[in-house]
């Protein structure tokens, strides 16, 4: 073997070793559950053989033919996959009364939502970072220069709800900035191990299984099913649970879908907890090749009707490119489908509040001039 080949192989081995060490050691990849936790999770109806499973069979395998088509599409690209200019945002002004007078939900981009309701301030999947990647400097950057409110501007947060542990929903940098400002983190089974590794005290973390409920300062919070998957590193897929959330107060009832493919769980949730004043439903990052784990915009409207929503707020779009469609396709298709179904759909700009319990909602097609 020539010296050049030997040097090349040595460099390759060093690179592989470095990558493995990075994934194994860097906290961005989260924590690992202990044996006692694994034993306790085995009692969950959502737990299968060594991992969590969906209520209905959901294939997420990528065979060689599917992989080839995906690589081909990535090389070709999609027209208008990102906006030509940074998206404008409306800076968020915090309510000192936390929504005691007018409860509201403020969409911050993608699935991140700030909610002030019945004297409580909550954050849902608060990904406020630059890119949904373990190395944000090389990930696909946010459409806007910054979110409508940044983590350092937030204070006195009662509850943070997390739907699952993917990078576009559970952001290491954001949690590190928020961890000492939050009274309670409520998460699906297993996600607490990530938070603990990032410095969140265990007594401020509560984990729930599907259909389990907890209460906090007068709010009832129910962890409800979703059809998705989980995982942050090279291994450990589906070692933590994924979910949707029901948030019920004395006067208002809200649903947050997290990430989910379409399924019968939406009707079950609607029958048990609906109707909802506001249903925040994922509508972007879809593809026929992973239709089981992300809804098409038309399915989004169908799911909203299944849960018995009164107002639909589309989420999971408007911040990052994670699928092979134009950046406006999710909102344009979901808006058409909602209007065809006679549904009330809110289309706020980034940072624009949506009043909870009101039929008067933002309805401007603000994205059209930005195509």
Give structural notes.
The protein is an alpha/beta fold. Helix content is 23%, strand content 17%. It is built from eight helices and 14 strands. The protein has a seven-stranded mixed beta sheet. Helix 7 packs across helix 8 (329-340). The chain is globular and about 55 Å long. The termini are far apart. Residues 3-22 have low confidence and may be disordered.
Write out key terms for the chains shown:
371 residues; alpha/beta; 14 strands; disordered N terminus; 8 helices; 7-stranded mixed β-sheet
In a few lines, what is going on in this structure?
The chain is α/β, with parallel strands linked by helices and 371 residues long.
* End-to-end distance: 55 Å
What's the mean pLDDT score?
92
Number of strands: 14
Q: Supply Rg.
A: 21 Å
Structural class: alpha/beta
Beta fraction: 15-25%
> Which blocks of ≥5 consecutive residues have pLDDT under 50?
3-22
What general form does the structure show? globular
Kindly state the percentage of residues in helix: 10-25%
Biggest sheet, in brief? Answer: 7 strands, mixed
Biggest sheet, spatial arrangement of strands: 6-5-4-3-2-1-14
**Separate helix tally:** 8
Give, in order, the helices and strands. Answer: HHHEEEEHEHEEEEEHEHEHEE
């Amino acid at each position: 073997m020539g010296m050049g080949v030997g040097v090349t192989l040595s460099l390759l081995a060093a690179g592989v070793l470095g990558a493995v060490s990075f994934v194994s050691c860097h906290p961005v990849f989260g924590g690992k559950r202990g044996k006692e936790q694994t034993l306790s999770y085995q009692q969950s109806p959502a737990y299968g053989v060594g991992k969590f499973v969906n209520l209905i069979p959901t294939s997420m395998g990528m065979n060689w033919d599917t992989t080839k088509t995906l690589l081909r599409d990535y090389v070709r690209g999609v027209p208008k996959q990102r906006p030509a200019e940074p998206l404008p945002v409306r800076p968020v002004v915090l309510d000192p009364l936390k929504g005691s007078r007018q409860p509201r939900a403020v969409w911050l981009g993608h699935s991140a939502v700030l909610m002030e309701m019945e004297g409580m301030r909550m954050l849902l999947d608060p990904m406020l970072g630059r890119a949904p990647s373990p190395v944000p400097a090389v990930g696909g950057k946010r459409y806007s220069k910054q979110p409508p409110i940044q983590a350092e501007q937030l204070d006195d947060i009662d509850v943070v709800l997390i739907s699952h542990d993917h990078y576009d929903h559970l952001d290491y940098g954001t949690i590190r900035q928020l961890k000492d400002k939050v009274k309670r983190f409520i998460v699906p089974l297993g996600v607490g191990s990530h938070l603990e590794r990032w410095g969140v005290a265990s007594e401020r973390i509560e984990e729930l299984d599907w259909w389990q409920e907890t209460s906090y300062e007068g709010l009832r919070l129910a962890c409800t099913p979703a059809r998705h998957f989980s995982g942050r590193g090279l291994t450990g897929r589906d070692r933590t649970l994924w979910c949707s959330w029901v948030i019920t107060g004395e006067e208002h009832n809200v649903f947050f879908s997290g990430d989910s493919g379409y399924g019968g769980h939406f009707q079950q949730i609607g029958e048990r907890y609906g109707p909802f004043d506001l249903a925040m439903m994922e509508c972007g990052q879809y593809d026929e090749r992973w239709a089981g784990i992300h809804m098409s915009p038309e399915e989004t409207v169908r799911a909203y009707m299944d849960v018995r929503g009164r107002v639909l707020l589309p989420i999971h779009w408007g911040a990052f490119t994670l699928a092979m469609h134009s950046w406006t396709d999710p909102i344009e298709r979901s808006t058409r489908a909602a209007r065809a179904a006679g549904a009330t759909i809110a289309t706020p700009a980034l940072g624009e509040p949506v009043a909870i319990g009101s039929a008067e909602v933002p309805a401007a097609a603000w994205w059209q001039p930005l195509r």
